[in-house]
Amino acid sequence: MTTACPKWGFMLQLPSFTLTDHLGAARAFPSGRPSLLAFVKEDCPTCDLSLPLVQVAHEVFGEAVDVLVIGQEAEGNAVLVERHALTAPMLDDSALQVSYAYDLDTVPTLIFAGPDGDERRRFIGFGAGDWKALFAELAGIAGVGTPAFNWDDYPESLPGCGSRSVEPGIAERLAAEAEGSPLRARRIDVGTGDDLHEFLFDQGLTDGLPVVPPTPERVMRMLEGTGRDAQDLVAVIPPNMAPATVEKVAINAVMAGCRPEYLPVVITAVEACVSEEFNAHGVWATTMGAAPAVVVNGPIRHHIGMNMRLGALGQGNRANASIGRALRLVMRNVGGAKPGGTERSTLGTPMKYTLSFAEWEERSPWEPMHVEKGFEPDDSVVTVFPATSGPQLMVDQTARTARALTGSLGLTMAAVGHPRTPTGHVLFVVCPEHADTIWRDRWSKKQVREYILEVTNMPLRDRLATPDAGGIEPSQFGSAGPTEEQLSKMYSKFQGPEFIHMVVAGSEAGKFSAVLGGWASAPVSRKIENIP
Q1: Predicted pLDDT of residue 179
Q2: Roughly what angle, to the nearest 10 degrees, separates helices 246-256 and 318-333?
Q3: Which residues does 180 contact at the CB level (< 8 Å), separation at least 6?
């Protein structure tokens, strides 16, 4: 008759399994007889202490009870058999799938089960009282006496060791392989003689640089970075209009070198890119060569360690480098935006690899970009900017007033794309020293933008194409060309102040700001959700 499981308070049906023992025979559980399962590993002293008792149980009660030792290491199992002269079957669970199915944290774990696999008793580590009670129960079932032991030679209790099934890397692999795994992506088998990195290159899955192989355990670990279900649809990615689930984004985040805590940023950047305003299809397909620059605002900047200071737009910071790269790999590997296909950039740009950075909000005299766009200061926000040029360095080391410095920076912006033609959006990255100079005169962002519009004003006559240099074609104004009134009309480089997006970033030493030219579409900002 079965009894209630003392650990859970109800009868627990244990997972069934079949493993091979050390003699090559297949052993199935449950077998229709009561069973004693002993999970062990070779380098655990408490397992060594317990195994002689397991062997005695096999010798004394084996006619009535199956005594199965389940070892977690193939070589270690053989060592234990020899060390303890075991005749009890040593089952090979070096794949650890049974240990995982039994949710082990610690070995040794001893489980006594009924004929149908219902758990009746379990204890972990070593406890003299547990063994005495177990032997008494087994003796009653077998109809024999209890083995005599000098229990004074044993400790009252001894903790066990960590199960191999919960070791870092192994636990994620087992979760990925288990029934009910959240992973659904197609798995590719790579030959044992193949170079994995070369294989990924040959499959066209990289951006030209090596990527981190997206093994199931790495993807499982990446998914821990978000509270969303792995099969949630993040976006439909152009140009192939392919569905990108959280899992697929996570796969590409692994390949890019992201840590799990970066995943919410990458997911939000993907969502922003596929918005109608951003027009990802056009960004990738334009021969002009656009790429999304990612700007991060809010508390998550510090949580994931993004760089917003010295070298913020350059190399050296894992979060900055891998977030932008992950976004591009999603667009490439899921959406199909590959050079020579839909990706038609004439020259390309290093920004096609990555460009992601955080605004140094604490160093800015102005409200940060995400607050300007209507978000709360404590919101974590991603802005994707369709960048076509830059970062173009803007140098002024002599200006001492807001007017003089803003004038210099505005004149540099006047050349973005082409000196004579108006442009769309620009991302204006102000270094701290330049921000200090402007703020000494208490100029607001509004004043900065308005003065940039003023200094980039130019009459239409000076923007027209000439035999010496291109520009606006006169034919745009009809066959007769523009009127004298039109020729005298002033046109700024920018359609309005809202087309100049300002952030503060960079080292506190150096009067060097930057501007990134935009494409025909607009930047898009999204609040980051599902941060664990």
Answers
A1: 62
A2: 130
A3: none
